[in-house]
Amino acid sequence: MVSLVTGGCGFIGSHIVDRLLEEGHEVRVIDNFTTGRRVNLEHQKDNVNLSVFQADIRDINSIRPFFESVDYVFHLAALADIVPSIQNPEGYYTSNVLGTFNVLECAKEADVKKMIYAASSSCYGIPDVYPTPETAEIRPQYPYALTKRLGEETVLHWGQVYKLPVITLRLFNVYGTRSRTSGTYGAVFGVFLAQKLAGKPFTVVGSGEQTRDFTYVTDVADAFYTAALSDIVNETFNVGSGGTYPVNQLCELLGGEIVHIPKRPGEPDCTFADVAKIEQYLGWKAKIPLEEGVNKILENISYWKEAPVWTPSSIEDVTKDWFKYLS
């Protein structure tokens, strides 16, 4: 089998590459290295079944040749995080929507067996129901969520109109080794780990009693692989841990002092995936409990030594647009 992973040097993408290589696939990676890091696949550098190409999904002519004779496409390449999406909506639209269109067109031309799209649970916004099923109302609160949802709609439409076999996976709060260390203020694990290394307190939003469906990255990679090899097409599935955990519990597991910062508009008090559908259709279920996942991260915490260390004042400064536009 030949598999192509867009964003394959990124956090989730690199773990999917590992899984595919382990299963004997020939793997091609496309990454423009905006957030992806070559070091994430350094341990695979001598693997003859891996090829890494620097290219941007926004340029269809540059990526088209890499789709030749590909069986499976795993589309992870995207811009993430809330704050920069508010500040740079054009960049998010071109990457997450138009870039996805380009990937779909290349996949269609190559007549691939299946394309799996990394959708986002942020499309649900602030849901009415917990755990949240795939049938919940779509309520994106900020440009990142909107552009990922528009990408998902495009994928499903190509499946409907052009009969391209697709599956979209709505990911909930993925964490684990190799999570982003870019300069943008974003995912809680990257923020907390850099703060822990620097001996600074964890900047907890609000009371810290808000809960998140923290899902370990190798479980997510397993969901992608399972979806690709299944006979199911043109479906959407939540990918979550099966639980939801207070941010304060995460702080206890990481070990460190806490400082509280203001609650932010547009953020749900809970994220919690209803995973009944993916369990029923694909037989997939998360395996890594939160404590085990956090321990795996702490064993590799030096990875985050170059990540920015956020303080209450620097967070207040960088999130001004968040409060300005979403309040």
Describe this structure in words.
About 40% of the residues lie in helices and about 15% in strands. It is of the alpha/beta class and about 325 residues long. It has helices at about 10-20, 60-65, 80-85, 90-110, 145-160, 190-195, 215-230, 245-255, 275-280, 290-300, 310-320, 320-325; strands at about 1-5, 25-30, 50-55, 70-75, 115-120, 165-170, 175, 200-205, 210, 215, 235-240, 245, 260. The strands form four sheets. A seven-stranded parallel beta sheet has the order 3-2-1-4-5-6-11, with helices on both faces.
In short:
The chain is an alpha/beta fold. The protein is built from twelve helices and 13 strands. Helix 5 (143-161) links the parallel strand 5 (114-120) and strand 6.
Quaternary state, please?
Answer: single chain
- The fraction of residues assigned to DSSP E strands is 15-25%
* CA-atom Rg in angstroms: 19 Å
> On the 0-100 scale, what is the average pLDDT?
96
Distance between the termini: 49 Å
- Spatial strand order of the main sheet: 3-2-1-4-5-6-11
What's the count of strands? 13
Jot down its keywords.
about 15% strand, globular, alpha/beta, two-stranded parallel sheet, 13 strands, seven-stranded parallel beta sheet, about 325 residues, about 40% helix
List the helices and strands and how they pair.
Elements: E1 2-6, H1 11-22, E2 26-31, E3 50-54, H2 60-63, E4 72-75, H3 82-87, H4 89-110, E5 114-120, H5 143-161, E6 166-171, E7 174-175, H6 188-197, E8 202-205, E9 211-212, E10 215-216, H7 217-229, E11 235-239, E12 245-246, H8 247-254, E13 258-261, H9 276-282, H10 290-299, H11 312-318, H12 320-326
Parallel strand pairs: 1-2, 1-4, 2-3, 4-5, 5-6, 6-11, 7-10, 8-13
Antiparallel strand pairs: 9-12
Helix pairs in contact: 1-7, 4-5
